[in-house]
Amino acid sequence: MRINNIAIKLHGAIKIAVFIAIFSAQVTASFAKGAMPVESCLRARQCEIIILGALTPSPAITFVVYKNLWSSWSFADRATILAHLAQEALKARKNPEKYTNIPKSAPVYPRVVAAIQKLSQYSIMLSESDGNKSALRLDKEIQRGNLSFP
Questions:
Q1: What is the DSSP letter of 1?
Q2: What is the DSSP letter of 61?
Q3: Sequence spans of domains, the chain
């Protein structure tokens, strides 16, 4: 009898371990798939990452995307955007001159570079244009917050 109980408990533990392994693989796969829509929209120029407000007290690295594309993404797809923004912000802080098109001779250039080096906020903006032949516009900010860096 005792051996049967041990075998039943062991069988149950194996089922739990297999369930955890399958669940972990599914979660990992869903996050891996979630990164793909953001990457593909950046490559297709259906969205863009820019820096806004470099001469304001709270500049932000901003993700601009067509509203209809944003609406088609899952929550997991949308969650990957913050990771992208944090990575881009770190790159911008290290090489701020690559993230501005202001000439070095402009009087405000040092202030813009200093603001980019301290970049710590993000925003997500929707473009109401349809995305077919329309350029991205900054129509509506839907999210703003502080970035957390790894």
A1: -
A2: E
A3: 37-146
pTM: 0.71
Local confidence pLDDT in tens for the 150 residues of the chain:
566 565 555 555 454 443 334 433 343 444 444 446 888 988 988 899 999 999 988 899 999 999 999 999 998 888 889 888 999 999 999 999 999 999 999 999 999 999 999 999 999 999 988 766 678 889 999 999 998 776
CB 41 within 8 A of CB 69: yes
Place of tokens 């402009």: 106
Half-sphere exposure of 121 (CA within 13 A, CB side): 15
- The candidate with the shortest Cα–Cα distance to 109, out of 51, 54, 49, is 54
The span from the CA of 85 to the CA of 146, in Å, is 11
Q: Which residues contact 71 (CB under 8 A, 6 or more apart)?
A: none
Give me the residue label for tokens 């955007």: 81
